[in-house]
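@channel anyone free to eyeball this complex?
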Amino acid sequence: MDWRTGNLPLTGMRVVDWSVYWAGPYLGMMLHDLGAEVIKVESPSNFDPMRAVIDVNRYAGKNERPMTPQERANTNQHFNEWNRGKLSFVVELTDPRGRDLLLKLAEKSDIFIENRRPAAKEKLRIGYEDLTAVRPEIIYLSLSGFGQTRPERDAMALGAPVELASGLFTLNGYLDDMTPAKTGFSYGDPVAATAALGALLLAVRRQRKTGVGSFIDLSMRDALSFGAGAAFTDWSMNRSDPSHRGNRHPTFAPQGVYRCHDDDQWTAISVRSDEEWRALCGLVGREDWRADAGLSNVEARRERHDEIDAGIEAWTLQRNQREAEALLQEAGVPAGAALDFRQIWHDPQLNARGAWQEVEHPAFGVEVRSTSQWSRGPQAQPIDMPAPCFGEHNEHVLREILRLDQDEVRALVEAGVVTDQIRIAGE
Amino acid sequence: LSNELSDLRVIELSRTAAGAFAGRLCADAGAEVVLVEPKDGHPLRHEGPFLRDERNIETSAAHLHINAGKRSVTLDVERDAENLLALVGRADIFLTDIPARALDPIGLSRRALHERIPSLVITRVTPFGDTGPYRRYEATNITLLALGGQLRITGDPDKSPLSNWGAQAEYQGGLSAFAGTVANVLLRDATGEGQYLDLSILDVVATNLEHRSPALNLGLVANRAGLSVSATYGVYPCADGWVYITAFAPALWERLKAVVSLPELEEKRFSSQASRLEHNDELQAILTAWAATKSSEELHTLALEGYPFTVARTPEALLTSDQWRNRGVPQQVEHRAAGSVTVLARPWLDRERWQLRPAPALGEANEEVLDVVVEVAR
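replying in thread with the prediction:
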């Protein structure tokens, strides 16, 4: 894959992205990164709620007055992060003319992705059967919390809560503490989005080889459970749920997250082998540990893990997190500072890989965005386009893709079937 | 083409869950995946948990799950790179999670591989990728979660950052490596040319991070918040478990009020999103008392009716659930050493599920695959 040749895996393919929040939009963006043209479809009053969740002005200190809904829709920093590179088409799908436009667009597309609730799809009559009627070989992916099957298909789930339903939540937790723990963000979303990308690319290969389309039913919960699959196999063998591991590892010892000198600074350390153990002993000045035959193998170290943790922390507490990390790495011991968002942005490795790029967004101004994760390195793939403003590409979609003439476009706009104005009930 | 990749052979040289998860998904798509293991077995074989808690490299649950559907050959890569090359010579995809600095000196560099097999699809999913100042850093799952920003925001604010269970950085890397591999297969199908993917797990972890954009562009820097973001978006203990309440949006709040049906919730202090945040602690106290009276089963039933609850489920509850039975998620496989065990199917449904094969015994394909290939190569 080399973006410089312009030959990406999905070049020439068109995607209709009728998804909201994070997982679906992130999937759509990754399809764009792999070369597809992605058209984000929203409706004037049924838009991606991510557009409305925060008022940027309250935080950016740009001016005193609250933003209008329209301004909010075009500046949201969650939305703009996960929708870059897409075209925005805003069409009233409850209007038969609007639905007809969506079907016409599907007819000219290869992939359709959505994460709407079953009742909403049925009401609008936008489902796999509706689309195959006009485009039999389309690849249609439904991304949802629990899947399109009964009995759980109507339960709602966002990427954070779904972790509870996946089993992962009950497995997470501090050592010797019965309280479960949740990953500190909507972990279900990126995991499901990336799993869905793999599923879609497989379906593209099938479509190219056989001409047959697919209906893919991807469950966000199942994607999280799959990543913790060993716990399920364990239960089937032993009828026991594993106890909380905290930051420890089944075969590496010691392993932990150790407090460093400055406030709320931490470094994660893993010792995978006896060799790394001896290097650690030398570094932290514990020749007694190195000489101690009772610590020379991993089983023994696991027995005395608490004692070792205290000794390591006595050393890390005298250093800041990056200093501890660098010294450990120099000694050949795996270590990493627990970085915050700003530190990640400044991180030399991520910057050398071209992970971040500033882009100019017409409504927000200069924004830091992440680049395609498949084309990183000295010549990372540059970002071609920021996230679209609401309805920014209506005209392009109607004229260039659907081939309507100027009068037809004008009639649709005048009737409010296609618009670039957001409508929020009660505002 | 019975399955998406059933015309392809994969050589997987993995030492962590990152390469192993990518290989597992290739196997699920019908590819023949040959796992190249060290003589003492893949690290996942040593990880457990084991059948009856008895150490046995054939019954480690991590291995049974992540290596399901693969073949196994044993080979000392450092001393026997020539035989590995012979194996790769008959393959379409070479998948590894070993960094370039270890593979280049033994004749397994990208260049050497492509010189030998120009049409090879090479995927290297490594902690930091081929370039950048950390390319000589050592890493494990937890140090990658740390450097990628996911560790710091997980756990209780008054305790240390907490790693989530398993090998989640490697799982994220594995999912991206799988997608990137299939993407490169599509390119090879079109052009006949070999492809190379240099994927960094750190890149994936840092990219998959929510709240990064508001932090960098608005200065909204979040730290770990434990179980609760706010009264209307967080975890509550219920009578016999845990439930997530999702009611931050107006329509969801109305649904919540309808089912909780307490007069306090109609009071002015809770009448808007802003006022609910202002009176967050009071609202949290009311909902905590309410949730404590409800069982997981009751709340789960309400969730199925569309109320904004998500109930904590254990592996046991999921494995015995109607939803998973109807989706064919738990697959029973007959394993020679472990007996009849459950392995989870890949997390999406398209056509018919097909029967998963169990994880291989160590070196079970040495004769059938390795010896034949080596003989032919000579």
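from a first look: Chain A touches chain B through 149 residues (CB under 8 Å).
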